[in-house]
Design a protein that fits this description.
Among the domains are: 125 residues, Up-down Bundle (Son of sevenless (SoS) protein, Chain S, domain 1); 230 residues, Orthogonal Bundle (Son of Sevenless (SoS) protein, Chain S, domain 2); 87 residues, Roll (Ubiquitin-like (UB roll)). The protein contains 26 helices and nine strands. Strand 7 and strand 8 form a beta hairpin. The longest helix has 22 residues. The protein is globular and about 85 Å long.
């Protein structure tokens, strides 16, 4: 396997003599140490590299490997290679160095201990827990009555007793409502304790964030199409569901009573802004982002008369909070906040021009001096970074070696999540059953109903126009879509998502004209991942990549062209198991790739096998699909004025006949 060596100056001793005389002496002693980094290798060699040539455990390497190996292997496969390596070392060494072999075996046992302790979920595979059972049989044969044997035995017994699914991670039923108890108070917006509401939302987020398994955020793991493996990203999907649940309730609570007076509805909007303010103070960026997204969705943002009834200071506060998630400079504001406040006791970072937040921070410093909070990040930021790494850097390099440099970059992002999870232990909020019941009781609207209610509350031109815009063949369900409007960022994760703009979702049940209507209609906000939705959103309120890697807007396309595009491809299938679910994979499109090569790349990302000639690739435009010719240079054939969404589908027999005739005609 490939080893990368780097010279690193190693500080040995610094000595300084601070004297006033001219004979002051200051010296630095140092030496250069050669450090090895694994760049790439076969899976077997990467497993062997867990112990160094001297038989020592490489702590940095094992941390990176165990955090990222699911991108290119499975727990069962890695365990098999690890145990095979131990058995090989049990044989007499050809060079007679028995002690060295013994040291290597001890190191492999240490690696198994680290694996069991750090990633217990890898061995929890109900009902049989195959990997753990395999390890138990190994211990009974090679390591009986050892600490590892006892640990594996105890772990297997405990897993067999535990429930198969964590109820916190299970998707909520459509109309779940917790039973009321005598004496519970009833909440009704806007007369609610906003600080208490922020704390309760944070309590819900903390429970999920602490259970989040960082490696499930890897682009190659959580975006897998195979539904039978959806449990591998269960903690990510649970976080997504909670984010969506908050956003939908913001929208529904504002729209659900169309007969409210303008002033009363404005008070509800202002109440959500106050809750968002409290979330900022206790550093919960997840629910903060969800509320901002809900308020910026088309059904809410278009209610101009209601917004005009809100005090100017409150509007300024809302804009300052929304600015946190600005997409400028690769979401620099949000990243800086996480860097400054991630492990700090309380929020204290505010921009020079954020006058309203400055006033609020000055007040809170007097009341929360002795209170410390953790930080709940907006997960979309990390998912975007990991998806970018997964898309931009190849999985394998020359000779089919696994690119371990890529895994090291992914580990840097996962380490940030792990650090924030540790800080989240500082939160301590007691549950409020009355809040839980209120949260469950909010009627969740789908995007079509929300937009129709919005038009009913405040018609735009005419009711007929609103009805026309709201029609688009949407299916009713309560986890959808993307946000629209204004200038904040919204991460819409189409599974292996890349940032997107207007027409960012494809419903395979719709015709191209219906897709166009669907895309132009309003949408609800969402951190969306392969949920039961195929809707799309309004304006460009998305978390985007740096400008040289994304798709071009119409205004940019005439000025210059990037060296490559990032396109999103979904696979059209008639499978009942994936009905109603749209999954995207992002691939890089350079300026010299023709249709067969692009199809081959898409097939690789989507996990499809076969001949690329048996598939067609079509770009989805607002009013039609553009099927790419088999010999086209895709870079120049696509229309960059629209979002680069594509459908890959198997050729039908008539397609092949038509293609054959047209090629003969040419």
């Amino acid at each position: 396997y490939s080893i990368f060596s780097r010279f690193i100056p190693w500080l040995i001793e610094i000595g300084c003599s601070f004297q006033d005389s001219d004979d002051e002496i200051s010296h630095l002693e140092w030496e250069t140490v050669r450090v090895r980094f694994v760049k790439a290798g076969t899976l077997k060699k990467l497993v062997e590299a867990l112990s160094t040539d001297d038989g020592e455990l490489e702590t940095t390497y094992i941390n990176v490997f165990l955090a990222t190996y699911r991108s290119f292997s499975t727990p069962r496969e890695v365990l098999k290679l690890l145990l095979q390596r131990y058995e090989e070392l049990s044989d007499a060494p050809p060079n007679g160095k028995i002690d060295q072999h013994e040291q290597h075996r001890k190191t492999l046992i240490s690696a198994l201990h680290v694996w069991l302790d750090s990633y217990p979920e890898d061995f929890k595979d109900p009902p049989n827990h195959a990997a753990l059972t395999h390890l138990l049989h190994f211990c009974e044969e090679f390591l009986p009555a050892t600490e590892l044997h006892a640990k594996v035995q105890h772990r297997l017994e405990r897993y067999s007793r535990e429930a198969q699914v964590d109820p916190l991670l299970a998707p909520p039923p459509a109309f779940a409502l917790r039973t009321a108890a005598a004496g519970w108070r009833l909440y009704k917006l806007p007369e609610v304790p906003v600080r208490h509401f922020a704390e309760q939302l944070t309590r819900m987020d903390v429970d999920l964030f602490k259970k989040l398994v960082p490696h499930q955020c890897l682009g190659a793991v959580w975006s897998r199409r195979d539904k039978s493996r959806s449990h591998e990203a269960a903690t990510v999907l649970a976080t997504v569901n909670q984010f969506n649940a908050v956003s939908f309730r913001v929208i529904s609570s504002i729209l659900v009573e169309p007969g409210l007076r303008v002033a009363d509805r404005a008070q509800i909007i202002a109440c959500w802004i106050d809750i968002a303010q409290e979330l900022r103070l206790i550093k919960n960026f997840s629910s903060l982002k969800a509320i901002i997204s809900g308020l910026q969705s088309n059904p809410i943002y278009r209610l101009q008369r209601n917004w005009q009834a809100i005090p100017k200071e409150k509007i300024e506060l809302f804009e300052e909070l929304a600015k946190i998630f600005s997409e400028d400079n690769n979401q620099w504001t949000q990243r800086e906040l996480l860097m400054r406040e991630g492990t700090a006791k309380y929020a204290d970072t505010v921009g020079e021009n954020d006058k309203q937040l400055q006033k609020i921070f000055q007040k809170q410093n007097h009341h929360t001096a002795n209170i410390s909070f953790g930080t709940i990040p907006y997960l979309g930021t990390f998912l975007t970074d990991l998806t970018m790494i997964d898309t931009a850097i190849p999985d394998v390099i020359a000779d089919g070696l696994i690119n371990f440099d890529k895994r090291r970059k992914e580990f840097e992002v996962l380490a940030q999540i792990k650090l924030l999870q540790g800080a989240a232990n500082a939160y301590h909020f007691n549950g409020d059953p009355a809040f839980d019941r209120w949260f469950d009781s909010i009627l969740v609207l789908d995007d079509r109903d929300a937009y129709q209610l919005s038009c009913q509350i405040e018609p735009s031109g005419s009711n007929a126009k609103c009805k026309k815009k709201a029609s688009g063949g949407h299916q009713k369900n309560d986890s959808i879509a993307s946000t629209s409007s204004s200038n904040s960022s919204q991460f819409y994760c189409d599974v292996d998502s890349m940032p997107s703009s207007p027409h960012n979702s494809i419903d395979r049940k719709l015709s191209p004209s219906q897709m166009s209507n669907s895309s132009s209609s309003s949408s609800l906000p969402s951190l969306d991942v392969s949920l039961n939705s195929s809707h799309s959103g309004g304006a460009s309120n998305k978390l985007q990549v740096p400008c040289n890697t994304g798709t071009l807007s119409p205004s940019h396309s005439q000025k210059s062209s990037p060296d490559f595009y990032i396109i999103k491809v979904t696979y059209e299938t008639d499978s009942v198991e994936t009905d109603g679910i749209v999954l995207y994979k992002s691939i890089m499109l350079s300026n010299n790739e023709r249709t067969p090569q692009v199809i081959r790349n898409a097939m690789y990302k989507l996990g499809l096998e076969g001949n690329p000639d048996q598939y067609t690739l079509a770009q989805v435009l607002p009013d039609k699909e553009m099927v790419l010719p088999s010999i086209a240079n895709v870079y120049y054939a696509v229309n960059p004025s629209y979002n680069l969404n594509f459908i890959l589908r198997p050729k039908r027999s008539e397609d092949s006949d038509v293609a054959g005739k047209s090629s003969k005609g040419k």
